[in-house]
């Protein structure tokens, strides 16, 4: 799947093992699994995939019913290009923890990356509706990215809006929504969204650039100049400010 400007956002998996009563041998296996999982996670983040694979495959043998280990293995196999094994691990994780919202979000990222848009969006929405999910706005925005990548913008737009309704300062959702509006040649709507966001939240160079693009596309010379001035004043060393400074003058 060719995603828009930024990638779908995956959730970090917890590293806690089951806290149930166990025998001495089981406790030893749990401790070894915990150590291997933590090492495997660290090596995975560092990009040392062979060592991560060794540690995580040891961990899953020691604690085969821990969903977090299966979730990490899914990420590993995806990095290795083994999509079938990655999906198998996501399914194993969700069989053990079917309502875990972070697992649901991560599996949805996988599904959208595989072009299985409807399945992915359904999983994102399931995660977002889970009262235990700490960042439901991420799942809503991810569902929007998934749909936008499939050119289903009419369905994506309300999901970005929903993400901002839940978390009004979520810059990623605001950015994705404005880019969607610009791609539909809805410059006035895009500029309005930028201004609404900036009234309540600190600016970013990316959003100011989008505001400048929207104002220039309307065209509105005063708003274009205002966005350019803010970019060059508030983010003078940014790539966005340099791009605006180097842009040719707009044609009347």
Descriptive notes:
It is a single chain. The protein is an all-alpha fold and about 250 residues long. It has helices spanning about 25-45, 50-60, 65-80, 85-95, 100-115, 115-130, 135-150, 155-165, 170-185, 185-200, 205-215, 220-235, 240-245. Helix 6 (about 115-130) packs antiparallel against helix 7 (about 135-150). The longest helix is centred in the N-terminal third of the chain and has 23 residues, at about 25-45. The model is unreliable at about 1-5 and about 10-25 (pLDDT under 50).
Order of helix and strand elements from N to C terminus: HHHHHHHHHHHHH
The strand count comes to: 0
Can you give the mean pLDDT?
90
Number of helix segments?
13
How does the overall form come out from the CA principal axes? elongated
End-to-end C-alpha gap: 38 Å
* Strand fraction: under 5%
What is the CA-atom radius of gyration, in angstroms? 22 Å
Unreliable sequence segments: 1-6, 12-23
Structural class, by secondary structure, is: mainly alpha
Biggest sheet layout: none
